[in-house]
Design brief:
Number of strands: 8
CATH superfamily: Class II aldolase/adducin N-terminal domain
Structural class: alpha+beta
Shape: elongated
Strand order of the largest sheet: 3-2-1-4-8-7
CATH topology: L-fuculose-1-phosphate Aldolase
CATH class: Alpha Beta
Number of domains: 1
Largest sheet: 6 strands, antiparallel
Number of helices: 6
Distance between the termini: 70 Å
Length: 211
C-alpha cells in the first residue's frame, strides 16, 4: 500500500512537470505505471496533467476496466507496451513541441547526432499516423517495441517508457532535447550569404573597428 501511495504522488508530480515544461497543454498527454502483473495506475481522461490529484488517478486491469473512474482513452497504447515489454514499469505520452514537430513532418530522430544520446537512443522511430485513442494507434507502435524505448507517433507526439515513471519522463526530456538540437543544427548548417554590394560596403568601412 505504501508503494502505491508513492506511485500516486510521483505521477501527480510528473504530470505537473510535464505541464510546466510545456510538454502538454490543456488535457493532453497521459501517464501510467505498472502496479502488478495485471494491474495498472493511469491518468484519467480529460484532466489537465498539471492539475492532477492523487485521488484522480485510476486503477485498471489489462482490459482497462475500473470501478473508480474513466481512464485515459490512450489506454490501448499503454496496454500494448506493457504486454510486449514486461520490463517496462512506467510510460509517458506527451505532445512535446520539438519532438512533435518531427512527428508532424513525418521524420524520425537520429540519436547519433549527440554523443550523449548515441548509445541511449540510436534512433527514435516514427510510427504511422492513426486516430488517437484507437486500437490502430496501439498497433502502429508494435513493430518498434522490441528495440526502442521512445517512439514518435505520427502527427501525435511521443511515447517513452522506462523501468519506472521517472525514468520514462527523463527519456521524454532527452527526446525533446534531441529534437530541439537536431532542428537547430539544421538551421546552423544553412547559409545566409551577404550579397556582393553589402559586402563591398562593409569592406569600405574597414571592418568592425569602424562600427
Amino acid at each position: 500500500m505504501a508503494n502505491l501511495v508513492l506511485m500516486r504522488r510521483e505521477m501527480v508530480a510528473i504530470g505537473q512537470e510535464m505541464q510546466s515544461r510545456g510538454f502538454v497543454v490543456a488535457a493532453e498527454g497521459n501517464l501510467s505505471v505498472r502496479i502488478s502483473g495485471h494491474c495498472f495506475l493511469v491518468s484519467p481522461s480529460g484532466v489537465s496533467k498539471g492539475g492532477l490529484r492523487v485521488q484522480d488517478l485510476v486503477e485498471v486491469d489489462t482490459a482497462g476496466r475500473s470501478a473508480q473512474g474513466k481512464p485515459t482513452s490512450e489506454w490501448p497504447m499503454h496496454r500494448e507496451i506493457y504486454v510486449n515489454r514486461p520490463d517496462v514499469q512506467g510510460i509517458c505520452h506527451a505532445h512535446a513541441p520539438w519532438a512533435t514537430a518531427f512527428a508532424a513532418a513525418g521524420r524520425d530522430l537520429d540519436g547519433s547526432l549527440l554523443t550523449e544520446t548515441a548509445a541511449l537512443l540510436p534512433r527514435v522511430p516514427l510510427a504511422a499516423r492513426t486516430i488517437p485513442g484507437t486500437a490502430e494507434l496501439a498497433l502502429s507502435i508494435k513493430p518498434f517495441l522490441a528495440d526502442h524505448d521512445a517512439i514518435l507517433l505520427g502527427n501525435h507526439g511521443v511515447v517513452t517508457m522506462g523501468t519506472d515513471l521517472r525514468a520514462a519522463f527523463a527519456l521524454l526530456e532527452t527526446v525533446e532535447r534531441l529534437a530541439q538540437v537536431t532542428l537547430l543544427a539544421e538551421v546552423a548548417a544553412g547559409q545566409n550569404s551577404v550579397d556582393a554590394e553589402t559586402l563591398r560596403l562593409l569592406q569600405e568601412r574597414g571592418g568592425p573597428k569602424s562600427y
